[in-house]
Write a structure and sequence with these properties.
single chain, alpha+beta, Rossmann fold, Hect, E3 ligase catalytic domain fold, six-stranded mixed β-sheet
Length: 549
Amino acid sequence: MRKIKCAIYVRKSTEKGLELEFNSLHNQEEACRNYILSQAFQGWEYYKTYTDGGISGGTMDRPALKQMMDDMSRGHIQVVVVYKVDHLSRSIMDFHNMMKEFDRRNCNFVSITQSFDTSTSMGKLTLNMLLSFAQFEREVSSERVRDKIRVSKAKGIWTGGYPPLGYDIINKKLVVNPAESEILRSIFEKYLELKSLLSLRQWTIDNGIKNKRWMTGRDYEMGGSTFSVHALNNMLRHPVYIGKIRNKATSEIFDGQHEAIVSAELFRRVQQQLTENNNRNTTECRHGRYMLHRKIFDMAGNMFTNSSASKNSKKSGSRYYCTPGKYLPAGDVERLTCEAVQELLNSNLAGIILADILYGFKSIDFKNMTYEIRTKLLSNLLDKVVYSDNRLTYYVRTMPVAAKFQTDGYSNQNNEPLNNKTYAGADGKHIIIEKDIIINNRVSTHKYEACGRTMLTVKENNRQLIRALAYGWRYKQMYENGVPVEHIQRREKIAHRTVYKYLNLAYLSPRIIESILYTNCSPEMDLQNLFKIASSYTDFKDQESAFFA
């Protein structure tokens, strides 16, 4: 008898109760397993359970659901079993699209508590009626929640969310934090002085000011990171600091029950300055946020221009250096450039440049410079930066550095030997620095993936691969000791699918692991390709042929 692989899909809309030893998800899975056992005479056998906890059925953005559809497309699943229809989807349109995919893959769908036959017109009508009521229930519930939130905000009640800097949440109310409130007022006042969000961000970094750090109801520590320009913009525009409550759904603003931190006059002046800055359209404004403006070229001599993602893009706010067919993340390029310049200034340059120029180089306190001064220095110091596949080449001028970039009383005492990627140019006018890089087009933004960077040095990339293997082995040990994947997911604060991605790494070919540990892998090998090899090839020989191709 032909075996029929049966997958179980379970879902719960909220996270409430998931911490229980036996919760709704376990109940759904147990009932579906029993149903599969009852159909053993037809050749049914259990294949796998896909679990989405705390995710609404009104969206298709569910990790376990995507994984199930991928496995179905590979032919691993012939039947999908659910407890109720609305556990698979609460949207008629999404459900119909899934049913088309089921039919295309010759996969059947079974709801164990709602008996119907979709091969008949009456069965299809019954299914559509059930889905219509499920969608109606979801939309009515959403409307009730939105109405309740609006009424609460109209009364000035804090309805939850991330606590803003300057306040603590005590008994579900906003209470002024004295220490943070002083910092917040200084940020508002400093913005009026600097009149630039970018300069304000650098000021917060120089003074060690960070986002609010707080604990969730489940004792997870959140926040505490450095401010981004976007975060500062949102904070300066937030009416909560003048004692108001904003309802995003209707754009209404109500008087709050909490105490104001910023005066209405100071808040008004800040809003006026923000509006004025948004209306600027000068060249300085457009290019002020790009450290290497008009400095980067490709091998053909084409200059990279400044670009950023549109407001409607998923990567809103991202900055790029771009030329037709090539996009380089501006933040990473600038980070690597600053590292290269700092390494050069720390090196022993005697014999490569003249003594008076060497003195000028050693008098630059590059580490403690602000972003704006660094930008001006690099504009004078760098002749150009050439991008080629997996490499950035810097052409540093050996002319005397302008006196305004030298720091009085400062002398860089480091005299580290030059590496083999830094040498004097043949024309005698440049020092050439070559930096090997890898563009990491990652498949997720998992916190262990080198802090989410997309351009890495070879050393950083190798460290990233080794770190990923370490987490894979750690999850494998936990899994083999009986710890459920759901517990690993909650403990590590990562997606369910990401746990399996790292588990796959623990079963890689020993030859591949040895190559990674001794950094003998291909320079094009990044974490995305490693995940692909680990999940797509089950045979060691196939893995090795893909890895060493």
